[in-house]
From TrEMBL:
Coiled coil start-end: none
Annotated keywords: ATP-binding, Gluconate utilization, Kinase, NADP, Nucleotide-binding, Oxidoreductase, Pentose shunt, Transferase
Protein name (record): 6-phosphogluconate dehydrogenase, decarboxylating
Classification via InterPro entries: 6-PGluconate_DH-like_C_sf (IPR008927), 6PGD_dom2 (IPR013328), 6PGDH_C (IPR006114), 6PGDH_Gnd/GntZ (IPR006113), 6PGDH_NADP-bd (IPR006115), NAD(P)-bd_dom_sf (IPR036291), P-loop_NTPase (IPR027417), Pgluconate_DH (IPR006183)
Species annotation: Autumnicola tepida
Amino acid sequence: MQVYIVMGVSGVGKTTIGRLLAEELNLPFYDADDFHPSINREKMKNGIALEDSDRKEWLESLASKISEWEKGEGAVLACSALKEKYRVQLQSVPKEHITWIFLHSEYEVIHKRLSARKDHYFKPELLKSQFDTLEMPKYGFHINVDGSVEEIMASIMAKIKGSSKAPVGLIGLGVMGKSLAINLATKGVDVSVFNRHVEELEVDIAKNFATENKSIYDFPWFDNMEKFVKSLERPRNMILMVNAGPAVDMVIESLLPFLEEDDLIIDGGNSHYKDTIRREKELKEKGIIFMGAGISGGEEGARKGPSIMPGGSDQAYSRVGGTLETIAAKDKNGDPCCTHVGPNGAGHFVKMLHNGIEYGEMQLIAEAYHLMRFGAKAKPEEIAAVFENWNREMKSFLLEISVDILREMEGDAFLIDKILDAAKQKGTGGWSTNAALELGVPLDTITAAVLARNISGRKAERQKAMEIYGNSQKQFTTVEEISNELFKAYKAGSIINHAVGFDLLLEASSAYNWNLNLSGIARIWTNGCIIRSQLMQDLIDVLRDTPSENLLMNEKISNNIQDYQPHLSKIVGKALNSGFPMPVMSSAINYLHNFTSAQSSANMIQAQRDFFGAHTYERTDKPRGEFFHTEWLDN
């Protein structure tokens, strides 16, 4: 008979799920903890981790019991079985008579559960040692336990019954697609994968991916679209991980002949939000559900847990929200960095703006690096040490990787000095600028970052210009003299960059009736994504307290800005006078001065417009909303 061993670290629900499974299969249930000798239980009660010598007698006893149960009616056993050698010791019967069910989740999620558990001898402090000890099995059923008990049981029973249909299909096995497929599989989500086969261009991509990852999961792979669609449970859920633009429409067109009503397509790429709005409308007319989901985190994030920004109907999110939350990163409280952002194009708009803020943050760091490298003649390892010191406070992923970049050597030289200073972009930063122009929102820092990349790409022209104008850059300081003031300037620029970004989200939310939860968006940007930082963590509360105002109006933020502003102005002035461009830092201080000026220069603009085009103007001595025109004297 069959013995089902439900395994995993303490807190994953082995006992709860084991009892339910035993009831479902009409088998007796046993808990391995009940077989521990009293001395072992006393150790665990006192927070002392067990040694292998402590487990020897226990494992031998369990192996004997498993042999008895296999010869009898079978059983369900809840047992941690964290190491492979423990599982080998328990394997006292033929392998085909044991079914391993591996329950798992992230450390933060399990720790939160254990901390809430009362009257149990296992202490939460022991959890880290269990995660350190855990060797994930390369066999059996892998079941993520972030969902409800009902969802967990449904997944287990589907596997036991040998359902040949996968609940999720993934199309497009580029870097992100491959990583996301592995993430899904290791989180217990059955997934079929598809990649087109094009001779001499894309050959056996799906087949090779499945072969290379066979030790992780037996991926059903396809390069035939019809067979791929037929491999999925109905109603079907398909994730598209293909390049934004025409490629998305081409894949949808190739899918449509094989789809049925209520099938769901999820676009996980960086599509433009207006394309997402269009696609959702067009597909709805055909009875197909469409969702645009922004996914951030790069290759590592997609593999280990990204930040996910799904936008679409409530119906769509209710179908796949649990799955998306399962594979997402977790915030500091163990909650998924995934939330239903809003309807139609909201998810891709939010992802677009995430990338816009990312552009600004990257350029801020680049400007600080450049000023120290060439204005203070600091070596890369010195700058790395400065950034590392800054990041003790900032906890910024981008600062963190910048430290690693600056320390990377190629032979005896620093790699950073060999990288051409011509930056690339994929368009999302520029899309943010275009959206801001359409909505009438200032987006100074993000736009400056986009344009800085544009001018960097003109390397040959810049070299010729230097021959004409000469190199005006000169050393003007040392790292020791500048690092503290530069840090405060950097912090000011970062706050202002986030403020203009969230201001655009606020305006888009109103213009498109999306009802965006800005605090919730900040929360899902605290892990898994590229712009995660301590500032983003702080913004959760700030945006909750003042959800409908520019961030710079918040008292805590304004206090910080007033402290940092003089240093930002001073750094920008020194840098410009010494010939060093500071596009984002200078745009940040200009934005701040404009934002805090009760009297701007725009009265002259309005007078000029009325003079040459009779565009009218409002008056300071009349109510707002009344417009006037002057017959100007043309001298």
